[in-house]
Amino acid sequence: MNESVTQIHIVMLRRSRSISTIQRRVSRCFPVALCGLLLCLTLALPSAAQSPSCPLPTWRFGVDMNEYLGQITDYDVAALHIGWYSDWRSRLNPARPGGIEYAQLLWVFYGSGPSLESLGPEVDANPGSLWMIGNEPECTYGPGGGNNTPEQYADVYHQLYHFIKSRDPTAQIAIGGVVQPTPLRLKWLDLLLDYYQATYDEPMPVDVWNIHNVILQELQGDWGCGIPRGLTETQGRLYGIADNDNIEIFKQHIVDFRTWMRDRGQRDKPLIISEYGVVMPAEYGFPPERVNAYMNATFDYLLTARDDNLGYPADENRLVQRWLWFSLNEQPFHHETGMGFNGALFDYRYPRYPGVMTPMGLNFQRYTDALLAGEACLTGTIRLRGHPSPPHPSYAITVTVSLYPVGCPYPDIRSVQTDSLGRFSVCHVTPGDYDIVVKAYNTLANRLNGVQVTREGASVDLGLLCAGDANNDNRVDLADFSLLAAAYGTCRGNAAFDHRTDFSGDGCIDLLDFSLLAAHFGQVGALYGCRGESCIRPGS
Asked: Residue 283's CB: how many other CB atoms inside 10 A?
């Protein structure tokens, strides 16, 4: 095999990060309590002629994101209508733009997990969250693989599972996703379950089963994903490069894993795929058109695949409940460094809101757009603090509108364009009662509860949006001040100009923008999710 092929595959599926970087991870800490999803589930559904679906089909879709190339708030993810994401780490205060869910991930290497001292506050601050323990825990290829024997992983899983549950009984714990559910990796999982039962005298407790489904060769010392640690075999499935987008293999992996779950008494558990896609580069015969065809085929299958003997009974016997596409913003393969992968939805070179979609991102958007099938239109109006009175060109911006069916914690998230009067329209909405949250990329969010959308539509005034949130995380703090300071004194056309800090919309970063940030410093926007006392924003 030529050197470049070997190079890309030795690092295939590994994130461009080092273990030491992961161990040094730092979370920005804010004393803000976010509403846990489970608090919302007791609210009654509205008595409308046609109740909105809860959740929408788009809630199942999500993305993986490389945090070293950009943050989730750097991209217009509302345009993708996704319901969740992962950036392969855990956070005290994760960004949830538009109300999307954040999947926490705890790195487990060689049987060692994170510090419980640092983990405790993260668990406390995120009740009801999904926690994935490990990433490809069996894989020996680094730095993304955990390199754990079944015994090592069982011991650290036991410790972390019971620690998290002791602090948050509502937490949902998922096993770390193996690279692909092939016979070799199912054997590794069997050894894991057997050891756990023998050591702790109880079945291994798993709330959510989790796999990756990237199709790679299993051959010791060669490209692909290698042999699971602790096994003596030297080869498994010898998939070729051309198999990386083989939809029949993709489907069979899922059926095989659901069969494995059923045979071990685990059929009544949800199954997620926390990483999959086409990772082989365009240079190996995988141009955007081929990636998009595979993306569409997998989406079609994941949305419709049911089996009365294998599927999850609580979800109409669907085989898979949710999935994450790899990835939101990964860089393409680079022959000199041997790093990078295919399938990114946004161009990694432009990590500044709204970002630049790739052909794969546009395809993803078209697919999820088509799933929005309501017949009503909602029209709304916003005003922007510090801007000239409308009509004014500075009012023509991108805003995120999150529609929460009353009693449902899962939003219908839209990206819309306002006109020079601050007006926008959201169509294909199912009639019903909604709580509405609206946010521009550099303002705090506003919220309006109990809006009734009929088949004839609805019109709402969503009020004055307060400026100062340059990094789009729904709070005004030092991070926003740092961005403003870096661009201060520049105007549109200057290389250092940053439109995110142009809070007044006049094309220059000056004292007026500083004043707008200072006026709202320390404030947090309206919260996403629940309504009622638990959702009143801090300090209000």
From this structure: 14
Q: Report d(CA 37, CA 43) in Å as an integer.
A: 11
Q: What are phi and psi of 30, to 5 degrees?
A: -130, 135
Q: DSSP assignment of 16-44, as one string?
A: S--HHHHHT--------PPPPGGGGTTSP
Q: Are 60 and 302 spatial neighbours (Cβ–Cβ below 8 Å)?
A: yes
Pairing state of beta strands 130-133 and 104-106? Answer: parallel
Which phi and psi (to 5°) does residue 35 adopt?
-75, 125
CA distance 78 to 346: 13
Provide the Cα torsion 255, 81, 91, 161; round to 10°. Answer: -30
* Closest to 191 (Cα-Cα) out of 228, 147, 136: 228
Within a 13 Å sphere around the CA of 29, how many CA atoms are in the beta-carbon half? 9
Instruction: Quote the tokens at residue 353.
Output: 């809101």
Regarding beta strands 271-276 and 322-325, do their DSSP bridges make them parallel or antiparallel, or are they unpaired? Answer: parallel
Q: Determine if residue 147 is left, alpha or beta; phi over 0 gives left, psi from -120 to 50 gives alpha, anything else beta.
A: left
pLDDT in tens, 1-13: 443 333 333 334 3
Band (pLDDT 50/70/90 cuts) for residue 22 is very low
Please tell me the predicted confidence (pLDDT) of residue 31.
Answer: 25
- Region 306-328 average pLDDT: 98
- Reported as a single tens digit per residue, the pLDDT across 249-297 is 999 999 999 999 999 999 999 999 999 999 999 999 999 999 999 999 9
**pTM of the predicted model as reported, rounded to 2 decimal places:** 0.88
Q: Give the C-alpha separation, 140 to 230, whole Å.
A: 10
- The rounded distance, in Å, linking the Cα atoms of 335 and 3 is 10
238, two tokens? 């010898």
SS3 at position 414: strand
Residue type, 108: V
Half-sphere CA count of 345, side-chain side, radius 13 A = 31
Which two structure tokens, joined as six digits, stand for 3? 């050197």
411: left (phi over 0), alpha (psi -120 to 50) or beta: beta
Q: What gap in Å lies between CA 7 and CA 1, rounded to an integer?
A: 10
Which DSSP letter does residue 269 get? S
Q: Which residue has the tokens 């030092």?
A: 478
What's the pLDDT score for residue 335?
82
